[in-house]
Structures are given as structure tokens and as C-alpha cells.
Amino acid sequence: FILVAIHGLARLAKLGVNDVKWLNGFGRFTGYLSHLMILFVLVNAVFGYDGWYNDRWKAVGRTPFIPQYSELQSYLLANTSVNDVILSSNEISFVINAISGRKAVAFRRGHVDPFSTLDDREIAAAIILYGSSQEEKIRLIKEYNISYLYYDINWVHSEWELDSKGQVAGSFDPLAVFDTPENRRVLEVNGVHYTPQRTWLDPSMRGGYFKKVDILFIDASNYKPRDDAIWKEDLDKLIQPIWKNNDGSAVLYKFTV
């Protein structure tokens, strides 16, 4: 906007008021100034290119997919609809949506509409995966029109930071909701364990600049780890495997309800 204004004044001085010497001088001055500013912008762009190009996330964007996600992408694009809904962890759901456009139940908090009902969806995901009522699981699967459940070996690491002994040492991006009496009640009624904590909601938005809030983490004690699964065993009755990647580290299940 500054450059446009300067050019406009320069043209006015040259074309409309040539008989006023001081305005002519002003026009020449603004013309020189605009050229200097353009030169400054170009020089800054040239010298700043390396920093822009080597930015952490731009480098990540140029990195090829790991095989399990490139194989999953090929399968989803060829065999599912863009409106199909897939259940997984927050971070893995984030990946699935990015590589296929398929819809997700849970998602990274910082990448959704702040006015969305994400708490309801996070609770639904927690109940389906770890809840005690089979009837409630089936009701929520139908309510959210969930077609698939995806699991891979990154699930635990996508939610928790582990120490050298494999024990939980901190959170990354587990299922989580705001700490309210109603959220506590719903989780407790459905037998889902949680841990209250005052912390940040999004793993990429942490530090003094961001506000901490009271949240309920869906606890790692809910896990029932076994081959190709981490959810409560009764969910196995509602799904069947339909795809595995080449090394068996990732499985896509289809809901049968």
C-alpha cells in the first residue's frame, strides 16, 4: 500500500502540476524512493530465501511419505469415498485427512474450528475405543457414521512421550477434552479413565505465549495393547481387518455395524 501511494503521488506531481516546481521535485523524490523500496524488497527476498526454504515445516513438506502412509494413501484413494469417516488417534487422523481427504472423528485441536463440538467427538472416540458399554459404542459408531478404524505402530507415540523403559513420561497429543463436570460424568459412566491437568491443548502451541487450560487427558491406562490393536477387546467384535501394509505395521479395519 505504501508503494502504491508513493507511485500515485509521483504520477500526480509529474502529470497534473508541472508548473509547481516544488511538487515536481517531490514527484522525483517519491519516484526515487519507490525504486529504492522495490530494490530493498528484492534484496531482502534474495538473502532471506535460504531461511524460508529451509524452514522446518517446509522441509517436512518436501520429505516423502514413510511407506506405510504412501501404501495407505493408495488404498484409501482407490477403495473408499472422500466422505468416509475414519477413527484413529488425533495425530494419525490428522495424517489420514491430509493424505486422502477422508473425514476423521478425532483431530488435532489447533486445526479445527474453535466453535466445533470437538469435545463431543473426542469423548465419542474414547468411548468407542475404551468404553465399557457395547451398546453405547454401536450407537456412537452409527451417530458419527464411522466406516473404518485405522491402527499403526505409531499410535502410542502419537499420544504420549515415553522414557527409555517405555513408560509414559509426558503427553504429546492424546484424546482430550475440557475439564467440566459433564465431561467427567460421561467418561466415568462409560468406564473411561482420565487424568486432569492444567496444560496446553495442542502439541504445536506450547510455551509462555499460549494459555494453559484445565483439560482431561484420556489416560494411557485405557490401553489394552496386543498385535494390531490397542483398544478394549470387545471392540474386536464390531470390526474386521480389510487391509495391511507390506510389513504388517499398519492395519485398516472396517466396522461391521
What is the topology, as strand order, of the major beta sheet? 2-1-3-10-9
Give the overall pLDDT as a whole number: 86
The helix/strand series, from N terminus to C terminus, equals HHHHEHEHHEHEEEHEEEE
The oligomeric status of these chains comes to single chain
Strand content: 15-25%
Helical fraction: 40-55%
Please tally the helical runs, counting DSSP H or I stretches of 4 or more residues.
9
Overview of the structural elements:
Helix 5 links the parallel strand 1 (85-87) and strand 2 (103-104). By secondary structure, this protein is an alpha+beta fold. The radius of gyration is 27 Å and the shape is globular. It starts with a helix and ends with a strand. The chain has a 5-stranded mixed beta sheet, with helices on both faces. The chain has a 3-stranded antiparallel beta sheet with strand order 6-8-7. It is built from 9 helices and 10 strands.
Describe the secondary structure blueprint for this structure.
Elements: H1 2-15, H2 21-53, H3 56-61, H4 67-79, E1 85-87, H5 90-100, E2 103-104, H6 118-130, H7 134-143, E3 146-152, H8 155-159, E4 160-162, E5 168-171, E6 176-178, H9 181-189, E7 194-199, E8 213-218, E9 239-244, E10 250-255
Parallel strand pairs: 1-2, 1-3
Antiparallel strand pairs: 3-10, 4-5, 6-8, 7-8, 9-10
Helix pairs in contact: 1-2, 4-5, 6-7
